[in-house]
Amino acid sequence: MLSSQDIKIVQSTVPLIEQAGTVVTDHFYQRMFSHNPELKDIFNLSNQHTGRQKVALFEAILAYAKNLDNVAVLKHAVERIANKHVSFHIKPDDYQIVGHHLIETMRELLTTQFTQAVEEAWTSAYGVLANLFIGREEELYTQRESSAGGWRGKRAFILVEKTKESELVTSFIFEPVDQQPVMDFQPGQYLGIELKPSTSDHIEIRQYSLSTAPNGNTYRISVKRELGEYKGVMSNYLHDHLNVGDIVDLHAPTGDFYFKDKQKPVVLISAGVGITPMQAILDTLAERRYELPVTYIHACENKAQHSFDNHTASICNTQNWQHFTWYNNEQGNNQNTFGGLIDFTKIELPLTDGDFYLCGPVGFMKFAKDNLATLGVSEERIHYEVFGPHATL
CATH for 266-385, among 3.50.50.60, 3.40.190.10, 3.40.50.2300, 3.40.50.80? Predict the structure, then answer.
């Protein structure tokens, strides 16, 4: 427990941190990677180049400092980050390294304002936060290790099938080298894939949503080829170089975003590669013969980039569920397909009692969430998944 004096001292430094902005996290990462370059095998360096990780850490530091007297309000963020850490196999010793560089960063940037009292208060505050994560992560590790077909750390899998789903997305099916069963997962969760690409100087670990219902024997992920200035090291390697018969290490499925059966109508809303967890949920609902209404909504650039379109239509038509598509750069050609941005007023939705699941780019999800709220959907019935560093809508 932190003393009231420690809380007061830490919170008194918030204006200094806010004034410094992401200079704090720039300095922190530069310092940490300089002294502990082995951590480059854990951190996604692409997110370092784009600045997403730095912004996420900066916002997390401020949120924690501001809420030291009521950490419970950070429960959702802590749960999401703890799950992500498990997919990287973060260990307690890693927290000591991060904590050391965080304190030293403050010492070097705040100089005379970083008094002994400030150092002691921040050291205590970081210790409380680290122990919170370490405790929750150990619970998650133990759950996965003790589950039927589960494991802790890495497990070797072989690629047994590779299928192109659309212009940018390819599916990969893995089965364990030991030929033993694999643990089930909640539809919507992801797993961590670890390998050393020939195109990278470092071991790379990435998280990809599982894109079909659990079967106890194999896992399927569906990966978008990331283009642009910071080409996805892992996604392009998987597309171009990983072949059937190759072996990779996988970390057990995890994640705090997944379908929760509340016996209510379900609406699945995705954009781009955000379709992947929705496929797992859709397949699971079909297997369970879900008896309440299901509506499946997807947005993408055009038909060439529409993954799983035939599969989705087949399931929805068989189950008598609604399915709609919006193409940003094409006109719709039937009653289920539209052009432009999603317009929820064009379709019938369970606005008063449905559960809505969102996945896609942050801007898209904010757009969808705001529009649903305008139509009267309460916030507690909107659930979403953000790929990459933590962000809020």
Answer: 3.40.50.80
Active site residue 120: no
Residue type, 366: K
64, 95, 290, 327: which one is catalytic? 95
This prediction has a pTM of 0.91
Residue whose entry in the numeric block shows the structure tokens 């690629």: 159
How is residue 226 written in tokens?
């990331």
CB 282 within 8 A of CB 308: no
pLDDT tens digit sequence for 334-386? 889 999 999 999 999 999 999 999 999 999 999 999 999 999 999 999 999 87
How far is residue 364's CA from residue 72's CA, in Å, rounded to a whole number? 28
142-177: per-residue pLDDT in tens? 999 999 999 999 999 999 999 999 999 999 999 999
Could you tell me which CATH class the domain 154-254 is placed in?
Answer: mainly beta
- What is the fold of 4-146? Globin-like (1.10.490)
Q: Is the pLDDT of residue 42 over 70?
A: yes
139 is catalytic: no
3-state secondary structure of 326: strand
Distances from the Cα of 42 to the Cα of 85, 103, 304, angstroms: 10, 21, 34
Count the helix, strand and coil residues of the chain and give each as a percent rounded to the nearest 5: 45, 20, 35
- Domain extents in the chain: 4-146, 154-254, 266-385
DSSP β-bridge partners for residue 204: 195
Nearest-angstrom CA–CA distance, 134 and 131? 5
Non-local CB neighbours of 97 within 8 Å, separated by 6+ positions: 32, 36, 39
Give, for 75, the enclosing helix (H) or strand (E).
helix 75-88
> Catalytic one among 29, 126, 137, 327?
137
Res. 49 pLDDT band, cuts 50 70 90:
very low
The pair of structure tokens assigned to 272 is 């781009």
Q: What is the C-alpha to C-alpha distance for residues 324 and 296, in angstroms, rounded to an integer?
A: 6
